[in-house]
Every structure is written in structure tokens, then in C-alpha cells.
Amino acid sequence: MTFRPAWPGQVASLGYVLVHQIEADLGLRLTDEQTLRCIEYYRLDPKTGRRLVRRAALRRPKGAGKSPEGGYIGYAEFCLPTQFAYWDVNGQPVGTAHPDPWIQFAAVSEDQTDNVMVWLYDVLSGPAAEAAIERHRIDLGKTRVYFKGRPGRIEPVTAAAPSREGQRVTFGVLDQSESWSKANGGVKLADTLRRNAAKMNGWTLELQNAPMIGDGSVADLTAKAAQRAAKGVLYDTREPPGADTVDLADSAALMAALVLAYGDAVQWVNLDRLLDEIRDPATDPSDARRFYLNTASPSSDWAFDHPRWDDLGGHGLIPKAGSLIVAGFDGARHEDATALVAVDVVTGTAWTVGAWEKPDNVDAWEVPEVEVSDAVGEMFDRWSVWRLYADPPYWEPTIATWSKHKGSDRRPAVFEWSTNRYQQVGFACRQLATAIRAGQICHEVDDGDDVLTRHMKNAVKRTVASRDDKGIPLWTISKPAESRKIDAAMALVLAWEARTDAITAGVKPRKKAHSVFL
Prior knowledge:
This protein is of the alpha/beta class. 35% of the residues lie in helices and 20% in strands.
């Protein structure tokens, strides 16, 4: 017996039956796209009944329903007839439930596993699933789901867990695989899950946002596997044509791209809200295309927008003596550079107070500490300094001597601000990048060696081990090469952080007209 279509266009798949059972058991209504994907997930060889999909990936923008899909497919693999048994007398496939299902919802962090696990747990705990819970004798544990009286489990797993090699996994969900890398153990975890599923004749479903092209993430590697047409890989994505170049300021073009990217998800996604998010100066354009237009982007190395920075430069912007300012200090002692950068609190004007770099063709060199301290003293003498934030490594004793300087509020003005605090520096760097894109900052241009501009353009992003409340990775700045210094750029990050704190604290200049551009 082999497959015989019951209607024109029918394919050999257990998905037709599973869609109805998922909807009935969980009280859901799958969209047309979700229905078609379910049919594809469970496609069979029309002669042998063998599963055709061993590895699937669903790439969609944020909010498009990826986590719920991972959840209800996980439920199907746990309870429903997902395993081919035989062809009936009409040539239609008949399925059976797995006798010992082992389902894993995997991510590189515990918080990420909640995306799928919590969704399914909430659905199974609701009134719509009461009959299914009773019929299948499901036990909702605190962190796992079991059957009562027979084998089977659903569990969350992370890359931080002990080795999972050899576990008899029948189905695995790889959530947010664009964040799975070699560094955080994600690539190894993906390989292990796939091997485990393969030996059980199971499969895996990858849920991903668009990756950065060439970043080596699991999502990036899966996209390459799909491009090579690897056997058994189902790759489902909706990428609007021209999304990598669409003008984000063109409302009509952007809305059309969003409609295409979200597909059936426009039924529950507020696209007008997404327009506002995309145009928020805090949203990196590359991130906007990846997370909302579902478009894989090349890794953006620049930490700050170079053309925008150039647009914001000018001459004669340094404020007059007595103006209310803040400052940032960053540097090393040997073989590198040190910089002191100030920002006008009211206008957001930035300039280099002092910079010291190792001269060319010099073997041994040390930053002249006396000159640096003199520059700090002259700054406090000339302007009304509210705060100086200084990165302390190598300079702790010297910074301590600067404590004699009082701020505009007659309080201590010099504070250590360590740049090795990943979350704090991540937010501070992004805040400066946002201010540049929004035009909230301007800077003095030096017709000679413009150290600040040179260091700003040297700075590249380096992802840190921290994320914001939306799950977006934070980053700091680093040197692209040893010879390309960035100390003035980091000093500006600290100065801008001090300006933000000054505004939050409601600090005001002593005189109404405190700053006149020269």
C-alpha cells in the first residue's frame, strides 16, 4: 500500500489530522500559514511513509508567534499521533503517538527557555485544555510536564547544563538560535540535540530572528544549510524584497515591508506601533531590519554612525568659561592612549580637553601623569564641572588626588566609573549611539589631529554578556587593531553618561545664560 491523494493537491502528511487535534485540545485556531507549515513538518515519503523533515527552521520577525508554534508542536509530539504507523485502505497515512516521548525546549539561557515553556504551561493550565489534560493524563510539574503512569516528558534545557550527549530526545525546539554561538555553547548544544533526535528518528524545530550574516550563530549556519539545499532541512522565512535597502523614513514603503514580513501575524501585531519602534533613535537601523523586517544583515562593526557624527561637527562650539559641564576620563599608563573629554550639560557639545598618545617610533613610553593632572585642574578652574567620571584601572591613586576638586554643587565631583561592568557600560554605549543618531550631541572639530573624531571612528562594537529587557544583546566598544586607539571615545561615553545623570538630577547652571558659543 502507498499513498493515494483524497483530493487534488493533497500531499502525504500527518499534518492534516494533527492541525485539527491541536486546535481541539488546546482551544487554538491556527492561521493558514501555521496550518500549511504543520502539514510540511509532517510530510511523508508517499511510498515508505518515512518522515521527510529532520530539521526545520522558522524565521520570523519579533511578535510573529514563533514561541507559540514551538509550544503547540511540542505538545503534538508529546501527546498526539505524530509517528507514521501504516496506510489505511484508502491510501491515507495513519499515525500513532510516540510510546516514550522526550521533548526538550532548548535555549542558551534559562530566561529564553521560558518563551516556549511558559506559553505551553499557561495554555495547558487553562480551561480550554482541561479535557485534553484528563484524556492524556498529563501531570503539570513545576518545571516539567509528565504523563501519569507512563513514560514521557517535556523539559527546558540550556547550554549551561551538563552534557546531554546520548539522551533519547524525540523532538527538540531550538529557541532564538540567532543568539546561539560557539562562545556561549549554543553551537555545541544544537549539534548535540540534533544527534540525539537523529538516533530516535526524531526531529528539531529552530525558532529564529534574522541573524547577522556571517556571525557563526546557529541561525546563520542553518541559513547556509538551507541555501545548499541540504536534504531534510525545511527553512521557512518571509523576507520582503528590498528590505535591506528600504528607506526606514518612508512610511508607505516601510509599512508594505512589514505587512509582507509578518504575513498572517498582522492579525495580532500592531504595525503602527512597530513603525514607532523602528524610528526610535534608540533602535539601531541594522537591528530594525533584522528584528522587524526579518532581513539578515551583515555584522555592523561601527559602534557609532560615522556620517551622522560628521554632520554634527563644527568650529567654535566650545562653551565659554564658567559654563556647566561634565567630563569623562579613560586611558592606560603605557603603550596606549589616555583622554579627557568634556560635554556641555545644556547644549550637549563635546570636545577634547586633553589627549595623550604614544608617539610613533618610541619603544618605551608612559603617559605624563603630571600633564594629565594639570589638565584636570585647569578644566575645573575654567568651567563649572558637575561631575568627572573616570575609569579607574592603572589610575586609582591619581584619581584619588583629584578628589580635592569640588563640583558645581560644592560636593565631590570626581567618581570612579568602571567600564568593566558589562550591563552598565552596555547601556552607556548604546545611549551615546542613540544620542548621535538623534542629533542630541554636537562636537568641536579640530582642524589638526581631531583625536575625538579619530577615536570615535576607530571604535567597533563588542558584544558583552548581558541583554536589555527586550532580550537584545548589549555591547561595549573595542579597538579593531592595536594601533587604532579608542580612549577618547570611551571618555565621551563616560562624559555623556555624566550628562544624563546631571539632567536626571535636575542640575542647572548658576547663570541663566551660561553658555555662549565662540
